[in-house]
Specification:
Length: 227
């Protein structure tokens, strides 16, 4: 760090807070681009406030005669961020969403603390690794594990004889992974009700799915819902 910056404490603070703003901005743009609830402003505020609290922690330790651990404020930030991250996690049946966003909130606060402590290189490296992880590993996960979402496929068939082999083959062609299958036959209605628990791909084309399932003899109703 150049001497003129070190000698001007206000310029030093400006650099720390600006770097935290830029880091929060990068995280915010990434989350907003993927249509997540935690957006740009939220992550900027988290990163800048973490940076400011770290500056405050260092200032108190250096300017005042205090006893105890001067890093307690930073530790308190991490504790508080844990509760904030938990609020970004949503539970839809058997599907859990928001875990990545919660992890980003935690990383965002950590980067802010690093900027407040003038650890710019570690903060920059974490930013780079985080963006690469979000961009590359996300695509890799979709290729290796295309079917992640748990859904229930409900089929109503007007007889108790149906082509189970064709049904399973059709679901496999559409990218489904069958987890479980429950069968209920109504003698009064003379209909078979199938409840199939599946893992569905993100790129599911419901038009193609219904078109293929409509070829099952006696099919009356097709319903696809989240588990």
């Amino acid at each position: 760090m150049p001497d003129f910056i070190l000698q001007n404490i206000h310029l030093d603070y400006l650099i720390r807070l600006t770097s935290s703003l830029l880091c929060g901005l990068c995280f915010g743009i990434e989350r907003k681009a993927h249509q997540h609830s935690v957006g740009i402003r939220t992550l900027i505020f988290i990163c800048m406030s973490s940076c400011l609290l770290t500056i405050l922690s260092v200032y108190i330790a250096s300017e005042f005669s205090v006893t105890g651990d001067p890093t307690r404020i930073a530790a308190g930030v991490i504790t508080g961020i844990g509760f904030l991250g938990a609020g970004a996690i949503f539970h839809y049946g058997l599907n859990i969403r928001g875990l990545t966003t919660a992890a980003i909130i935690f990383t965002d606060a950590s980067v802010g603390i690093a900027c407040g402590a003038k650890l710019y290189i570690p903060a920059l490296l974490v930013m780079i690794f985080s963006i690469l992880t979000l961009a590359i590993v996300s695509r890799l996960e979709k290729k290796l594990f295309p079917a992640e979402k748990r859904k229930n496929l409900l089929l109503t068939i007007a007889n108790k004889d149906y082509d189970e082999i064709f049904l399973k083959k059709t679901l496999k062609e559409c990218g489904f992974i069958i987890h479980d299958m429950d069968i209920r036959y109504s003698y009064e209605e003379k209909r078979t009700h199938l409840t199939i628990s599946v893992h569905a791909p993100d790129s599911l084309n419901t038009n193609i799915l219904t078109e293929k399932l409509s070829k099952i003899k006696g099919i009356k109703e097709i319903t696809l819902t989240d588990s």
